[in-house]
Sequence to fold (91 residues):
Amino acid sequence: MKKSRKAKTQPMISSRPIKDSLKLPVSTVTIRRRLCEAKFLARSPCKVPLLKKRHGLKRIKFAKEHIDWPKEKWRNILWTDEIYSEDSERQ
Fold:
C-alpha cells in the first residue's frame, strides 16, 4: 500500500501531501481514516528547548575529555535518543 509506505518513511507528513503526491481521487479525511486503520496515528514533533552556545561548548568539552574512553566504558552510557529493551540490542 503506497499510503502506508509514505507514512512510514515520512512519519510527520500530513494527509494533504500524501493525496497530492499520489494523485488519489479521495478526500484527505479518507486518507487519515485509512492510516488510522493501519495503525499510523497522527504525530506532532516534540517541543525541545533550543541549544545555546554554552550548551555546544559543554558538549565539545565533554567530547574532548572522553575521547580516549574504551568501547566497554561507552556501552554503560544510556543514550536518550536510542530505543532499548532487554530483548533487543541498542539501536
In short: The CA atoms of residues 83 and 89 lie 9 Å apart.
